[in-house]
Amino acid sequence: MAKRTIVSLPGDGIGRVVLEETIRVLEAAGFEANYVEGDIGWEFWTKEGNPLPQRTIDLLEEHKVALFGAITSKPKDEAFEELAPELKEKGLVYSSPIVGLRQHFGLDICLRPCKSYIGNPLNFVKRGIGDEIVEPAVDVAIFRQNTEGLYGGVEWTNPNEKVYEGLLTHPKFVKNFGSTPKEELSVSTRIFTKKATERILRAAFDHAVKYGYKSVTVCEKPNVIRETSGMMYKMALQMQTADYPQIELWNTNIDAQMMWLTKNPETYGVIVAGNMFGDIVSDGFAGLIGGLGFACSAQYNPDSGVAVFEPTHGSAPKYADFPTSIVNPIAMIESACMMLDFLDENKISAKIRKAVAEVISEGKTRTYDMMKMPGRVDVVEKGAASTTQMADAIISKLG
Ligand code: NAI
Ligand code: MG
Question: Which atom of ligand 1 is nearest to the CA of 375?
Answer without folding.
Answer: 11
